[in-house]
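[agent] plan:
  1. take the single chain provided in the ticket
  2. run structure prediction with default settings
  3. attach C-alpha cells to the ticket
  4. add a short note for the reviewer (M.T.)
[agent] executing step 1
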Amino acid sequence: MTLTAADNWTYTWTNLAEKANKKDIVYSVKEVTEVDGYTTTEGKVENGNVTITNTHVPVIPEEPEDPKTTDVTFSKVEVNGSAELPGASLKVVSGETADGQIATDAKTGENLAWTSGDTAKVFSLSEGTYTMVESQAPAGYELAESITFRVTADGQVEVKGTDGSWTVQADAIIKMEDAKTPVIPEKPQSNTPTVDDPTTPSSNSDKQSEKKQEKKSLLPSTGDSSGLGLMMLGLALVLSVIFGFVYKAKRAKA
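[agent] step 2 finished; step 3 output follows
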C-alpha cells in the first residue's frame, strides 16, 4: 500500500489472525520504495503499532569546478638573442588568424594586448587555439610573423609549424623573434667640379689659357682672306716651276 499526506501517512490493518497451525504469526512492515532525499529507519512494534521513520537528507549541490587553465609565458626577443626586447606592440587573439578577437586572461579577464618590456608576460589561458600577433615592431626592427599555438586539455602548449604539425613547447613558452632592419649604405658623393663664380678673380691656369688663345688668334685660319691669298701664291709658284720644266724640255728636243 502507499501512504499519502491525505491519510496522515498512516494505515491500519484490522482482523489479522494471531495464530496459524497453533503457532503465533509474526508480522512485519517494510518500506519497499525508496524516497529521494530521505533515509529509512526500520519500524519498531509498540503496542501493536509499527512506526517507520523517514528522515529528510538535504541535497548539497556540488560546487562547479573551475575550468582548467594553463599559464603561458610570452617572450619578445631579438633573433638569436635571449634578453627581452622592449617596445613591441603585441596581442593574443582567438583562432588561427591574426584578425581574430583579442583573447582574455582566464583568471583575471584582462585583455591580452600589451607592449613588451624588460620581462616576459605570463597569462592564464583555457583550452583552445590562439595566435600571437605583433602589431608594431620596435624602432630598427622588422615585424615578426604571427605564431599560432594551442592549449590542450592536459595543459600542454603546442606551436603550429608551417607544415601544419604541432610541436610541444617546453615550459609553456611562446617566443617571438624580431630581425633588425637591414642598413642600406649611402651613395658616394659626386666629385664633379663646380662652376666658378664669374665674379671671382681668374686663376693662373685661366691666364695661361687666355695666352694660348691669343697665340692661336695670331695664326691664319683656313677661312681668312689672307690665308686664301697665300694658298693662291703657292699654287702660282708650283705652276711656274712646272711650266719652266716643260719649256726647257721642248727646247732641248729642238
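[agent] step 4 note for reviewer: The longest helix spans residues 225-253.
[agent] ticket updated
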